[in-house]
Specification:
By secondary structure, the protein is mainly α. It has 9 helices and 2 strands. Helix 3 packs antiparallel against helix 4. The N terminus is likely disordered.
Length: 189
């Protein structure tokens, strides 16, 4: 009788070892994008992301609509989230559709392998886009007027010097072409 218990215990451990990466993937996707999430429940947005990132959605057999329908079926009627058990049922429902032609058990194992150990991809994060319009607006060589004074020839900002009008107490009006020539003119007479 002791031997039977040990064998059953080993079978249970083997099943838990198979499920553990799946549970870990569930938790990672469940908390993705939500700082207050506990990882015990997954919302529809994260379920759709999991299906897309883990390549369950292939565009032919399984579409985004299929994923949404399965989520609605798996969750409790009044709930907006699914638990880990409901998550497994949802995967099992998608498996025969995703792996058409395989036996139901093989399809379930195949879909689990797609999800196991995965985590949310950070694809599509907003990046700085440089277009011709942005290039034109940020090209300091095309600036005119007072804005031109804020940058040197290489396009680097000049700091405080470029922002403030510096006064020269020479006695001449700013921009006067013949500044400093008065002494020369008076000596000539």
């Amino acid at each position: 009788m002791v031997h039977t218990f040990v064998i059953l215990d080993r079978v249970t451990m083997a099943e838990n070892a198979d499920v553990e990466p799946l549970l870990e993937a569930f938790r990672k996707f469940a908390i993705h994008g939500d700082t207050s999430a506990t990882g015990k429940e997954m919302n529809g947005k994260n379920w759709a992301k999991l299906c897309k990132d883990c390549k369950i959605v292939d565009g032919k057999n399984v579409t985004g609509t299929d994923v949404d329908i399965v989520f609605s079926k798996a969750k409790a009627k009044t709930s907006r989230v699914i638990t880990y058990e409901e998550f497994q049922k949802a995967l099992e429902e998608l498996a025969p559709k995703r792996f058409e032609g395989e036996s139901e058990e093989d399809a379930v194992q195949s879909i689990y392998k797609l999800v196991e150990g995965k985590e949310p991809a950070n694809m599509g994060i907003t990046k700085a886009v440089k277009t011709s319009v942005v290039d034109r607006l940020t090209d300091t060589s095309k600036y005119t007027g007072s804005h031109k004074e804020r940058f040197d020839e290489s396009g680097r900002g000049r700091g405080k010097i470029g922002r403030e009008d510096l006064q020269e107490n020479t006695g001449y009006v700013e921009g006067y072409k013949h500044a400093g020539t008065y002494e020369e003119k008076t000596k000539a007479k």
